[in-house]
Amino acid sequence: MSALGDCREYLIEIVKGAGGINAPATYIATVNSVNEDARTCSCTSVNGPTDISLDTVLLMSEVNDGLLVIPAIDSTVIIQSTPNSMPVVLMFSQIDKVISNAGGSTLQIDSDGLQLDGNKYGGIMQITPSVKAWNDTQNDINNLKSDISTILGTANTLQAGLAVLSASSAPVIGSALSTLFLPYITQVISSLTTYAGQNLTVTEKSDVENPKVQHGDGS
Fold first, then answer.
1. 214 close to 113: Cβ distance less than 8 angstroms
2. Where on the phi/psi map is residue 42: left (φ > 0), alpha (ψ -120 to 50), or beta?
3. Is 119 helix (H, G, I), strand (E, B) or coil?
4. Rounded distance, CA 22 to CA 172, Å?
């Protein structure tokens, strides 16, 4: 090897030792597109003297589970690259979706909200409207019990009236029926009519569900 060649190799070794040749390059880039399945995005650098197209930029270390962050289109990212490895996104300015797989559970966050192990069971229950719906039902049942108690009281009065009639002579039966029974019969009819007309409002799923937080069993 010539002296010039020896000098060149020597300089290369010095640069390598200083991390020059294999030193990571850092780019500020704009996201053009995203391939979620491949865990990559396509970007164009904006911090150099000329724009550089970076067509396969990793969003995670490999196509696998773990933590996957999907950048928004046209957002800005910081990318690091070395001669011996594919470029990878280090930082994000805007995020469209985050998927985290850990310990057998999956958490996904996007514009639709949050999903924990899927959405099989629908949205997380809203406690306040649920408790109100339950209380409305419980109160209605308690009102029914109160009406039944009133009816039982009336029945006892009717029973007592029958005893009076049985001890009375026939001519006074009609008057006794009118005096003793008619007010209570009217009360029973009025009470039952009022109760029958007070229909409960059927609780809809949307009344008690928070659709922004979905959950499932992972299936």
1. yes
2. beta
3. coil
4. 118
Q: Is the pTM here over 0.90, yes or no? A: no
Contacts of 80 (CB under 8 A, 6+ apart): 24, 25, 26, 27, 87, 88, 90
18-63: pLDDT as tens digits: 555 567 888 899 999 999 999 999 999 988 767 888 889 999 988 8
Rounded distance between C-alpha atoms, residue 156 and residue 177, angstroms: 15
User: How many other C-beta atoms can be found within 10 angstroms of the C-beta atom of residue 116?
Assistant: 17
d(CA 187, CA 92): 73
Count CB-CB contacts under 10 A for residue 214: 21
Starting at the edge strand that comes first in sequence, how are the strands of the sheet with 113-116 ordered?
67-71, 95-102, 105-110, 113-116, 209-215, 123-125
Let me know if 57 is exposed, middle or buried by CB neighbors in 10 A (0-12, 13-18, 19+).
Answer: buried
Query: Do 70 and 103 meet the contact criterion of CB atoms below 8 Å apart?
Result: no
- Would you state the structure tokens that stand for residue 13, as one six-digit string? 């070794």
Sequence ranges of the domains in the chain: 3-63+75-93, 124-215
Q: Which of 35, 52, 47 is nearest to 78 (CA)?
A: 47
